[in-house]
Amino acid sequence: MFSSTFTYPEREGQYPAVLIISGSGPQDRDGNLFFHDPYLIIGDYLTRHGIAVLRLDDRNVGETVEAPGAKVDYLADAVRAIEFLKGHENVDGNKVGIIGHSQGGLVAIEAAAAVPDLAAVVNAWIAHC
Asked: What phi-psi label fits residue 48: left (phi over 0), alpha (psi between -120 and 50 degrees) or beta?
């Protein structure tokens, strides 16, 4: 069971939705890093602009009690979260995407292969030279 925050616009109806996946290392759903919460800010912005957003705590962070996992577990976690979004009554299941940062960017690409009908994939990973 993953602790999460699911936000969606206040108007009635179904919305496009995105899942935000964090990078490597234990992070909460807000992506708290050096007193900055980038996933909270991105999620708030997207929700205010008509997009539902699901943000998860990483394994063993906050109230999430999943055992630490390997990369294949992170992919399975992402696919389960996408399935949740696609089945939610406030989400247009044909308009679900994923945003991944760092290692989450790799998971986002792998999720696109596992769930080929994703509407959008964003790999927000700056490669190190």
From this structure: alpha
